[in-house]
Specification:
The protein has a six-stranded parallel β-sheet with strand order 3-2-1-4-5-6, sandwiched between helices. The protein is elongated. The protein is of the alpha/beta class. The chain is 31% helix and 14% strand.
């Protein structure tokens, strides 16, 4: 399987985490594909890391006040934005964030705070409806806005309206993370899970915070 690979060949990876995972996969493939009793040939090609890029002006050129007015968001609240698929297995589970928000409000009295959770929804899954129910059960109706399948043109408005970007992903597929980069391009500090490729995007305590999963 690796007989035609040369040292000058390369598989470009978007992060060190991606390169590490690919290296493991290739090592396993070599062992499984080699004839029994033979020493597998090492994968000799390069795995350079070239991070993914994003479009300039990720915030769409909107000011914070204008963006909040267009979206109907409160002008005097601290807004935390979470942009992601609503899928606990393939992306993230929002429930721990709801519990943390409830505790923040109860223990510190932060009433002017709003979590905007916006993303795509798998119509065959009930997870979004479950999270909407949990928001109500936790008494967070005035502090959480759930937006499903919002128009693509609203992304710039959401980024411009927010104060902080949040992404607690804990899925193995998250080897890079485009959304946090877009948020940083829009000037937002990022609170990310200390997980896989995410930990390569943020300098903890400098450009954002990495939280344990």
């Amino acid at each position: 399987a690796f007989s035609d690979v040369r040292p000058y060949d390369a598989v470009i990876c978007s992060s060190q985490a991606c390169a590490k995972a690919l290296r493991r996969i290739l090592e396993i493939s070599q062992i499984q594909s080699g004839p029994e009793g033979t020493v597998p040939r090492p994968f000799s090609a390069q795995l350079p890391v070239i991070p993914l890029g994003v479009e300039m002006e990720a915030h769409g050129g909107f000011g914070k006040s204008e963006a909040r007015r267009k979206l109907g968001l409160p002008p005097d609240h601290a807004i935390i934005l979470c942009l992601a698929r609503f899928a606990p297995i393939t992306k993230m589970d929002l429930h721990p964030c709801l519990l943390a928000l409830q505790r923040l409000i109860r223990e510190n009295g932060h009433e002017r705070i709003l979590l905007v959770a916006a993303g795509s929804v798998d119509k065959s899954d009930v997870y979004f409806e479950v999270m909407v129910s949990r928001v109500k059960a936790l008494g967070l109706t005035n502090h959480v806005l759930m937006k499903a399948d919002f128009p693509a043109e609203e992304k710039g408005l959401l980024l411009a309206a927010a104060d902080v970007f949040l992404s607690p992903s804990d899925n193995l597929q998250e080897s890079f993370g485009i959304a946090p980069v877009e948020a940083m391009l829009a000037g937002l500090p990022c609170v990310l899970s200390n997980w896989n490729g995410y930990r390569e995007l943020v300098r903890d305590g400098e450009t954002g915070f990495l939280i344990p999963t």
